[in-house]
Amino acid sequence: MPKTHVTIPFFIPHYGCRHRCVFCNQVYTTNTTTLPDEAYITQKIERYLQTIKPAVTHVEIAFFGGSFTGLNKEIQQKYLTIAHRYYLLHKIDGIRLSTRPDYIDNETLSLLKVYNVSTVELGAQSMHDDVLEQSHRGHTVQDTLNASRLIKEYGFNLIIQLMPGLPGDTYEKSIETAYKTISLRPDGVRIYPTVVIRDTKLETLYREGKFVPLTLDEAIDLCANLYAIFVDNNIPVIRMGLHPFDDAVADTIIAGPYHPSFGFLVKSRYYRDTLELQIKKYLQHNSNIQTLSIELPEHKIAEYYGPHKENIDFLRNVFNTIPLQFYSANIQEPVIRNTVV
Question: How confident is the model at residue 15 (pLDDT cuts 50, 70, 90)?
Fold first, then answer.
């Protein structure tokens, strides 16, 4: 399927942050150590724009990493002036930035409005104060609630970033965080299960046996449930798991559920679980089953099958008394039929 959205990303590691969270070392995760200068930003934008395909309908400039609204106002304005120029020339459709909940106020949002910023991403991470405190976040749940309300009042798109598996977090707390996030009515969420990165406080806690990260399977199971909650409430999940790293950066991950295809694995688990429930419901309401023919949406066939067709093997094992036959079709949702042979 042709790519329709393009993001031109700029990473600002640690700049603007007055806190050092236990999990954070953005020099490693962004592979960036310095603030980008104006020439670099302009050159990168021009390079991206030259590669835009006809199918692309939305182009945006994004400032990730660090806390953009914690930067010196002059630096913010310098970056936003460049992005805004491309917006006024109709070469991009939006400007996106990420920041902390406690770096949002009326003055800040008024400035962002001047430059036609479209989306503000908040690093909420958790909706439990004890988790935030143990993670040295330096803000509270109330800060997230206040910032989210203001962002929506000013007419920005609101994206909430969550990090299940932080110190003090539990499965139940992560689920509660999802429901509290829904109450903010964000325009999307990102889910980044916590990993242990070299040269962080979390690495020290991990090596001292004071922090145990989620296993990959635990993280997939938890995030599949979080994904289901958001999907059921019509809130897009725009990213799950850290972006794939090159080998050098991946080697800085000490422990935790990092996988370059984490989002695919989560969606695969979600579709497996939903299909299992659909089959169970069908069997409850139908008798004299001989063979179940299950048609799956062809545009999601990889997620329904799972890696190495693990989901198919799983379902055939769960329903081992009934032959299951799987097909792909140009449909939106699975269709289950009893086939008489």
Answer: low
